[in-house]
């Protein structure tokens, strides 16, 4: 008989010693920039030019030599001669000299000789002359030619998640294609003698498969391609068939259920059959019986079947693994905000604890209301905005204590 003693590892160790060390990466692909949102960049992208590329006015008014306006006021205006006009998208031919100004629209290119612009509201035009009632400093109301992006500066770092701001800059720079890491494909193998399809009638002792459908939806929200094997029985041969299919079809295999120590829990032996087990059990509640395995090119995760444990272990271990192999330099779950817990939450020591919470905005801060319940129920997931953390070694949270909140939305 197999030795039943297990060493559970802290979550941080899983990140540092396993996920961060993974040398598996998805393929690098070239995408149209407009389609690259949410992907990890596969290379540093440097700016080929300055943006905006020319000094431009930030107001509608007159381009002037700032020194010509020094000391002016309503009762003591400066008189400048209007020598021309700047048109959008065109370069002004000529150079303005002391005592002169040029009409300019917002966004127009600053003419040579000018070093500031004055708002139309602070002037009055009389034919070819304009009275200036307010002084401007050199550089005032001007956007410098490299103020937005400097030539050769990094616009996107390798491993950075492409966001809408990147797309704005990249498109403005004319970079219409970029190299990114492909998103991995996840294949789920749902297991359990008692588990039936949601469309089936069930007898009292059976349960319908909520886990794999919830995870598929959650992954699709992140743009991850996902496929599900049929439900399999607690039978070692069926486990092997399911995992073999998943390894052939996906980059990451998720086995739902069968990860604990029961006589019919076959995740561990199946993972050992196909590859190497790196960790078996983590110091996290819910979600202790998580098994991490790998082959040369693929990852196999055995996740606990209890719904709450399945959800938390997906969030804490599957999603970081997905991020790591698809090239993200930041893969560890990020604290979304710090929140105040609304009641005492005791916990047993020895496992880092995560509690489902609903947030309420109150007096300019967030109150987190715990949604407690056993790992075997799924409703906390439906009701929660995310989870709060009780660190390893802490005996619980006291009402009104500030704690870390991890959002289910920002993943
Ligand atoms: N002797 C021990 N027993 C258990 C331990 C332990 O350390 N020693 N750990 C407990 C913990 S903690 C958890 S979590 C569970 C995990 O068990 P398994 O991963 O083996 O999961 P199953 O036994 O297959 O299922 C547990 C529970 O979840 C239901 N389930 C399964 N699949 C689904 C699904 N697709 N959708 C919804 N619900 C599902 C299943 O019916 C069971 O009720 O082990 C403890 N035991
Ligand atoms: O780890 Mo289990 O997830 O406590 O129920």
TrEMBL record:
<keyword id="KW-0501">Molybdenum cofactor biosynthesis</keyword>
<feature type="domain" description="MoaB/Mog">
    <location>
        <begin position="187"/>
        <end position="324"/>
    </location>
</feature>
<dbReference type="InterPro" id="IPR008284">
    <property type="entry name" value="MoCF_biosynth_CS"/>
</dbReference>
<dbReference type="InterPro" id="IPR001453">
    <property type="entry name" value="MoaB/Mog_dom"/>
</dbReference>
<dbReference type="GO" id="GO:0005829">
    <property type="term" value="C:cytosol"/>
</dbReference>
<dbReference type="GO" id="GO:0006777">
    <property type="term" value="P:Mo-molybdopterin cofactor biosynthetic process"/>
</dbReference>
<dbReference type="InterPro" id="IPR036135">
    <property type="entry name" value="MoeA_linker/N_sf"/>
</dbReference>
<comment type="function">
    <text>Catalyzes the insertion of molybdate into adenylated molybdopterin with the concomitant release of AMP.</text>
</comment>
<dbReference type="Pfam" id="PF03454">
    <property type="entry name" value="MoeA_C"/>
</dbReference>
<dbReference type="Pfam" id="PF03453">
    <property type="entry name" value="MoeA_N"/>
</dbReference>
<dbReference type="InterPro" id="IPR036688">
    <property type="entry name" value="MoeA_C_domain_IV_sf"/>
</dbReference>
<dbReference type="InterPro" id="IPR005111">
    <property type="entry name" value="MoeA_C_domain_IV"/>
</dbReference>
<dbReference type="InterPro" id="IPR038987">
    <property type="entry name" value="MoeA-like"/>
</dbReference>
<comment type="similarity">
    <text>Belongs to the MoeA family.</text>
</comment>
<dbReference type="GO" id="GO:0046872">
    <property type="term" value="F:metal ion binding"/>
</dbReference>
<keyword id="KW-0460">Magnesium</keyword>
<protein>
    <recommendedName>
        <fullName>Molybdopterin molybdenumtransferase</fullName>
        <ecNumber>2.10.1.1</ecNumber>
    </recommendedName>
</protein>
<dbReference type="GO" id="GO:0061599">
    <property type="term" value="F:molybdopterin molybdotransferase activity"/>
</dbReference>
<dbReference type="Pfam" id="PF00994">
    <property type="entry name" value="MoCF_biosynth"/>
</dbReference>
<dbReference type="InterPro" id="IPR036425">
    <property type="entry name" value="MoaB/Mog-like_dom_sf"/>
</dbReference>
<dbReference type="InterPro" id="IPR005110">
    <property type="entry name" value="MoeA_linker/N"/>
</dbReference>
<comment type="pathway">
    <text>Cofactor biosynthesis; molybdopterin biosynthesis.</text>
</comment>
<keyword id="KW-0500">Molybdenum</keyword>
<keyword id="KW-0808">Transferase</keyword>
<keyword id="KW-0479">Metal-binding</keyword>
